[in-house]
From TrEMBL:
Protein species of origin: Bradyrhizobium lablabi
InterPro entries reported for this sequence: ABC_Transporter_SBP (IPR050902), ABC_transptr_periplasmic_BD (IPR002491)
KW Membrane (keyword) present: no
Residues making up the signal peptide according to the UniProt record: 1-28
Keywords recorded for this protein, A-Z: Signal
Domain annotation Fe/B12 periplasmic-binding: ranges: 32-283
Protein name: Iron complex transport system substrate-binding protein
Gene Ontology biological process: cellular response to iron ion
Keyword Ribonucleoprotein in annotation: no
């Protein structure tokens, strides 16, 4: 009887130890987070543990907008409204200041903690947001490592651009030009390239005429896609005969939008693409 009692006590102790060991990862886990915006999605995914991510924005799986679209398929897609977020009750909701204000205010009124991100205009602001997200998910070491990777990519790009004094013009659909106060321009000028948007009187961004673009005479235009197919009038602008005459493929640097629209660790990939494109057009 005593032997059985002793055995039972040991068994109970073992069970308790196993339960404690099983519970400890949950106790050590960081905050549970929901993301409302495709840009906060892309800050969150590489820095958080998978079990910290309760849901991502409705555009998280759009490959044209997010470099992390494939990874996003592992997670729940949120509607963009307050209802499903309230059901999940995350510890933190990460959102953009451009997300619907009424939704953000409702979530705050219901007691949820919101971390709101502005649109970064330069690399310093992008790095600050990586650090901020690292603090939110409680993985500051990962944020530090990603910033170091970004700095290394900047250094590689500078080595390629150094002493070449190229001028460029970031150009999008319908003649939209990214000016000197934009993230894309910051990315380019950080490497030593000169954005001629300033010569067109464009600061953050604005439309420029075909004549003004040609007269600016940049060495290269920076576009988000190559090819010779125009699916609509917006894209057709970039394939106008006059623009193609002065800027054929060997005068176009192609950096996909999904690498530059948001600030985050994908900017390192954008810089590596820039290096490859410069090597291509210089051949």
């Amino acid at each position: 009887m005593r032997g059985r009692v002793l055995f039972s006590s040991r068994s109970m102790a073992a069970v308790a130890l196993a339960l404690f060991a099983g519970a400890s990862p949950a106790l050590a886990a960081g905050p549970r987070i929901g993301s409302m915006n495709v840009c906060t999605d892309q800050l969150l995914i590489p820095l958080a543990d998978p079990d910290q991510i309760l849901g991502l924005s409705r555009y998280s799986r759009d490959r044209s907008e997010s470099w992390a679209a494939g990874e996003a398929r592992k997670y729940r897609t949120l509607s963009g409204g307050a209802e499903d977020i309230l059901v999940l009750r995350p510890d933190v909701v990460v959102a953009s200041l451009y997300d619907k204000r009424s939704t953000r205010e409702l979530l705050k009124e219901k007691g949820l903690h919101l971390a709101e991100f502005a649109v970064p205009r330069n690399l310093d602001e992008a790095k600050a947001q990586i650090r901020q997200m690292g603090e939110i998910v409680q993985h500051e070491d990962r944020a530090t490592a990603e910033i170091a990777r970004l700095d290394a990519a900047i250094a590689r790009a500078r080595d390629v651009v150094a002493a070449k004094h190229y001028s460029v013009l970031p150009l999008s659909r319908r003649g939209w030009v990214s000016g000197g106060d934009s993230l894309l321009s910051s990315l380019l000028t950080e490497t030593g390239l000169f954005n001629v948007a300033a010569d067109l009187g464009v600061s953050f961004g604005g439309y420029a005429s075909l004549e003004a673009i040609v007269n600016a005479k940049p060495d290269f235009i920076v576009v988000s896609e190559g090819g010779d197919r125009a699916e609509d009038d917006g894209r057709a602008f970039l394939l106008h005969p006059a623009l193609e005459r002065f800027y054929p493929p060997q005068k176009r640097i192609v950096i996909p939008d999904r690498l530059t629209v948001c600030g985050g660790i994908m900017l390192a990939d954008a810089l590596d693409v820039l290096v490859k494109e410069l090597e291509r057009v210089e051949r």
